[in-house]
């Protein structure tokens, strides 16, 4: 009996947590410390906070990987959810390992905007596109994150003659097309942008750099 208890403890999943970007939400965990961990199978359930019954996630029932996509199951973005995982090895099942409470609207990370740069001889026009959620409109297009949040765009310019780290904020607001004027011909500039969420005081990562020489 003791050995079974040891095995149960040694395969129990660790660090069960949600990772979420633009409402694409996955449950991640780490294997227990059993040596035969690669033969371990995992079983995932989820529920809305306050519900009494757990739901099985069929695609993540008896899997070997350490991640499970729960985007569809957490689509009511204001609701708090839990996930939990148990492991099985050689006919022995671990106890469940529980995630922290996860509320998509509050906790998803927002991605950077898509940035397109068009330049004339002394100015640059920056076009921004909000990141998209996985949820679709009736016509099939993905709903942008601006539908769910009051997002601002932050646009930064990096003058490559100067220090690489020296980016200057040239715009913050909701416009999707921004014109940056009075730039010097023959100089290489890079544009990066972030989305900023004032209500939660949270910024995205930087977009990938768009560099031009005027």
From TrEMBL:
Its main location: secreted. GO terms for molecular function: cytokine receptor activity. InterPro entries: FN3_dom (IPR003961), FN3_sf (IPR036116), Ig-like_fold (IPR013783), Interferon/interleukin_rcp_dom (IPR015373), Type-II_Cytokine-TF_Rcpt (IPR050650). It is found in: Secreted. GO terms for cellular component: extracellular region; plasma membrane. It comes from the Eukaryota. The keyword Transport does not apply. The keyword Membrane does not apply. Residues 6-96 form the Fibronectin type-III domain. Keywords: Disulfide bond, Receptor, Repeat, Secreted, Signal. Gene3D superfamilies: Immunoglobulins. Residues 108-212 form the Interferon/interleukin receptor domain. Transmembrane segments: none annotated. Receptor for IL22. Binds to IL22, prevents interaction with the functional IL-22R complex and blocks the activity of IL22 (in vitro). May play an important role as an IL22 antagonist in the regulation of inflammatory responses. Belongs to the type II cytokine receptor family. This is Interleukin-22 receptor subunit alpha-2. It comes from Furnarius figulus. The gene is Il22ra2.
């Amino acid at each position: 009996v003791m050995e079974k208890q040891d095995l149960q403890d040694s395969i129990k999943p660790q660090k069960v947590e949600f990772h979420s970007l633009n409402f694409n939400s996955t449950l991640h965990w780490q294997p227990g410390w059993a040596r035969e961990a690669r033969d371990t199978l995992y079983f995932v359930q989820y529920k809305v906070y306050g519900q009494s019954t757990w739901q099985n996630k069929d695609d993540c029932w008896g899997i070997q990987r350490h991640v499970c996509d729960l985007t569809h199951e957490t689509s009511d973005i204001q609701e708090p959810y839990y996930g939990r995982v148990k492991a099985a090895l050689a006919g022995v099942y671990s106890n469940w390992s529980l995630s922290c409470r996860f509320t998509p609207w509050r906790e998803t990370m927002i991605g950077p905007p898509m940035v397109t740069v068009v330049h004339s001889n002394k100015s640059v026009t920056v076009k921004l596109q909000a990141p998209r959620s996985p949820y679709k409109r009736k016509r099939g297009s993905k709903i942008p994150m601006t539908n769910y949040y009051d997002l601002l765009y932050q646009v930064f310019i990096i003058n490559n003659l100067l220090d690489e780290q020296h980016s200057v904020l040239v715009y913050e607001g909701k416009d999707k097309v921004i014109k940056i004027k009075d730039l010097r011909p023959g100089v290489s500039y890079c544009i990066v942008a972030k989305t900023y969420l004032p209500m939660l005081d949270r910024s995205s990562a930087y977009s990938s750099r768009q560099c031009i020489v005027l």
